[in-house]
Amino acid sequence: MSQAPSKRPPSTRKRMIWMLIGALVVFGGVFGIKAFFAAQTNKFFDNMPQPAVAVSSAVAQAQRWGADGESVGTFAAINGTEVTTESGGVVSAIEFDAGQPVSAGTVLVRLNTANEAATLKALDASARLARVQADRWQELGKQQLVSKDEVQQRLTAAATAQAQADAQRALIAQKTIRAPFAGILGIRKVNLGQFVSPGDAIVSLQQLDPIYVNFALPGQMIGKMVEGTAVHATLDSLPGQSFDGLVTAVDPQVDPDTRNFQVQATLRNPDRVLRPGAFARVGFGLGGERNVVVIPQTAVSFNPYGNAVFVITKEKRKDGEKDAQGKPLTGDKFVVNQRFIKTGTTRGDLIAVTDGLKPGEQIVTSGLLKLRNGAEVTINNKVQPAASQQPTPENR
């Protein structure tokens, strides 16, 4: 009696393939479901109505501005120097007080001249003797008792001796340091008994009235800025005060590195409140008026790639628009879009727009960081940024 053949178990290779297929189906289903829900979530947020952003606004205005300009400058003394000594020596007397005004020629410091004075006495005596001898030889020459050559030698010796005495006298004079011009002294930099070498600084001396203000302008203005142009300077440290003057020098050369040229104006400074080295804001008028479009500076987004504003326009709502709660919306809406502009000069809180904006267009003045192209906004002008040509901020 024959025996029925038994079933062979599936091979290990087939089991592994079926397990792999099963795992792929399970994980594929999981990832597929996850991707489906992610796509639906993104679709929901993409189509979800965004709440309107509250902003303040202003209208671009047409104004007539003079062809004024402004720059930043630095005050410089008409005459200013570190008083030094030409000869070395020991300080024997200090005859000034720090910070005091002095006139030209005032003695400031004396150096010890005892050795030089003794040498001068000897040289003066030699010069007098040489002079007497020269006079005697001149008389002998007239009587033809000595040759003319010997007379000339004596005259030369007398002149040489006198020159040596004069040189010593000049050396002594150098050891009395005087103010080279009238001005205000600074803080002294020497002490009694101190040895000073030639060129060592004694004290700073600055002439403060009048005073220069130096500032730079772009090269394209070199034909517009001329001597005699009126300027006014202001300082942050002296709010509310303005100092008037005139342009007294225009550098004919344009700096090849910065493409700017230097201008120097002279201002009266009778109270000596303007000091060399101080920072100044310099304004000037170039004459003539022109039409400009003016907006608040807070409306401009200043960027390296260009300045821009957000322009507000009114649009009709599309059918079926809903708010964040799903309620239907009707009527018009305000929408903002970014627009690049070219800006010009500023006056206080205002800035001129030379291109990209027309008078009457409404722009956003606050809340710019929350905006994007096509965003809906609500306008609330109860509180607005300051926008004045001559702002007067309050001290608090």
What count of helical segments does DSSP give? 3
Helix content range of the residues, please? 10-25%
> Which architecture of the domain at 53-65 and 290-379 per CATH?
Beta Barrel
Cα separation of the termini:
118 Å
Estimate the strand proportion. Answer: 35-45%
Oligomeric assembly:
single chain
| Rg of Cα set | 44 Å
Give me a quick take on this structure.
The protein has three helices and 18 strands.
What does this structure look like?
The protein is α+β, with helices and mostly antiparallel strands and 396 residues long. Among the domains are: 53-65 and 290-379, conserved putative lor/sdh protein from methanococcus maripaludis s2 fold; 69-76 and 202-289, Elongation Factor Tu (Ef-tu), domain 3 (Beta Barrel); 113-173, Helix Hairpins. It has helices at residues 12-47, 114-142, 148-174, and strands at 53-59, 61-84, 89-94, 101-102, 107-111, 176-178, 183-185, 195-196, 201-218, 230-234, 243-250, 260-267, 279-296, 307-316, 332-347, 350-355, 362-366, 375-379. Helix 2 runs antiparallel to helix 3. The radius of gyration is 44 Å and the shape is elongated. It starts with 11 loop residues before the first helix and ends in a 17-residue tail after the last strand.
